[in-house]
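Reader question, answered in our methods column.
A reader sent in the components of a multi-part assembly and asked whether the whole thing could be modeled at once rather than chain by chain. We filled in our standard form and ran it. Here is what they sent:
COMPLEX SIZE: two components
ENTRIES:
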Amino acid sequence: MSALKIKKGSTSHSAYNLRPTFSDVEERHTLAVLVENEPGVLARVIGLFSGRGYNIESLTVAEVDHTGHLSRITIVTTGTPQVIEQIKAQLGRIVSVHEVHDLTVEGPSVERELAMFKVAGQGDKRVEALRLADIFRANVVDSTLESFVFEITGAPDKIDAFADLMRPLGLVEVARTGVAALPRGD
Amino acid sequence: MTRQMTGAKMVVQALIDQGVDTVFGYPGGAVLPIYDEIFQQNSIKHILVRHEQGAVHAAEGYARATGKPGVCLVTSGPGATNAVTGLTDALMDSIPIIVLTGQVPTFMIGSDAFQEADTVGITRPCTKHNWLVKETDGLSAVIHEAFHVATAGRPGPVLIDIPKDVQFATGTYNAPKPSTSHYQPQVKGDMEAITELVAAIETAKRPIFYTGGGVINSGPGASQLLRELVDATGFPITSTLMGLGCYPASGKHWMGMLGMHGLYEANMAMHDCDLMINIGARFDDRITGRIDAFSPKSKKAHIDIDPSSINKVIKADIPIVGDVGHVLEDILKVWKSRGRKTNQAAVAQWWSKIDEWKAVDCLKFTQEGKTIRPQHALARLEALTKDHDRYICTEVGQHQMWAAQYLGFEDPNRWMTSGGLGTMGYGFPASIGVQMGHPEALVINVAGEASWLMNMQELGTAMQFNLPVKQFILNNERLGMVRQWQELLHGERYSHSWSESLPDFVKLAEAFGAKGIICSNPDDLDDAIMEMINHDGPVLFDCLVEKHENCFPMIPSGKAHNEMLLGEAETQGVIDAKGSVLV
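And here is the structure of the entire assembly that came back:
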């Protein structure tokens, strides 16, 4: 463990500048938080993020253990290593929180997100949209003569890429679930 | 044992079974069934406050002075919102209290009913945990769990919101049993880290113990272990505002409080040490000053029961998560088993350096002329009361810092002050709570006139329940700390930092049936203080002091520990533009 590192030439004079001695490189982490499924528990978690000024990139929540009344919240957040450590410690402090896992550091994990895209168009654009959807293994879940609704599952960057391709082809509406994630292996 | 009873009766039964003897509260529509049950029993004393904020501060004072959780009972809506300041105060200072609020009946929740507020929503960020109980059958279990959550791990305030129909309905009461919930904070520290700390203790040349409220919260046993460790190692010790009393002020190794208005020797030693052993403190910004210049040469060990305190502000080289008492016990065990070693020669040299800093005598002052200096008032209060069974509360501001500097605390749980939140109006109701916990003791609230007026209505409470609390008001007719900052930071433009139309405090006391004393002459001070102590009943002591006194020493905003101001002569232009944005 290293001693306190003082950055050379630091100009910070603020008693509230709490993080000058740590790495200031922002990292993206996926956290899995197991919570008691009771009223207000999501508000506790979200309130922690807003109250302490942390970021939420995506958040999904559903009860995963119906007999034990446990819900799993998957949060994708960004911050410096120190902020990520604080987020985990602060989450762990909430009385309704049973477990906090940082899937980004606890070994390889797999992330998936489901999205639905409504694409409206006619002629070549419509055909191109359908062909690209096939390449991305997106399903058509609704169809009219002027529109498709595609359903696509994948890692967030795959969904971003699909959205980029659909935009010039008449993308009118998107719904995304946010990331669900599990560690790989046993 | 299970029994059928109404929710209201359950509340009272659960409190009795939890060993509660005192409840601070204020009735209202949504808690009438509970008040009806309180009327029909004799086990619990109910102290009727004059404002719900007073109830919560009184419960805090009771909790800090007795080590038992404090309990409040207030009504829905405004009763609950008035409790918010006290809840936040208790959260910041880790004080175990249980606040019971009434709520409109379950079938009216969400309808904007009379005196309805989203109490659990409002208090979610200012409690450790809270509950809205919708079934009478679950009520007793929630109350018992609330006591567990409030006191386990890092203590804090909890709130239970009880709709009126739940109070009226009948359900099954369950007696308390050891908590089986998943919330069981770790109390034993990691032995590997403890051994690493012991190794650092053995070789340190310039060590320092930096202790805080966690030592007090861990219980009197922790203070005893701390004293043993400090005296056996011979290392110097300082403490935060919240930790005063964990090591005796008369102790050989005591350096006084550290921080923004801490003692010169304590802050200089923090800056120059090579091993900092933080025991139950949290590197608050009042302590660290400028972060990037904070104790640059030291290895830092941090003992805290709350993992989120570690690395929050200052990176710990040796982090130890655990209860102070348990960890101190293990440190002593390991240190003794390895032969009780310290680097005695180097530590002796370190002490001679500290003695040089002590020789600066940063708290010295002279009492001259016909105006009482606040430091003198506190020095005399100390001299005349230190041999009593004494408890001290304070409000917030200059007087609070002077009290921390000039009064000596020999034992834990004797010092009640609002540290984290800095709540003006805390001290008077807190003193009422302390007196309830220690009916025979001398309870003094050191106050400023402005803070004291914020909860002055509690004089009615003190009179009604015959609580002989002594209100020692250092009256400078100013918001002293605000005035000081305006002088140092805002070009001596004293915007709204003085009070016109202050009451005649003697007449005010008499209007409530209490005793009032006014003192403005230094020659009369001792007699007046003795008169206050000897009066059997609440006293309002109006001590007229120098109006423009500043509180020193001081680490200006944005400065490091070794950049302290020791007095008036050093204040010109010391806080730069960057420092001035800080609180």
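What stands out: Confidence is low (pLDDT under 50) at residues 1-20 of chain A. Residues 81-93 of chain A form the longest helix (13 residues).
Send us your own complexes using the same form.
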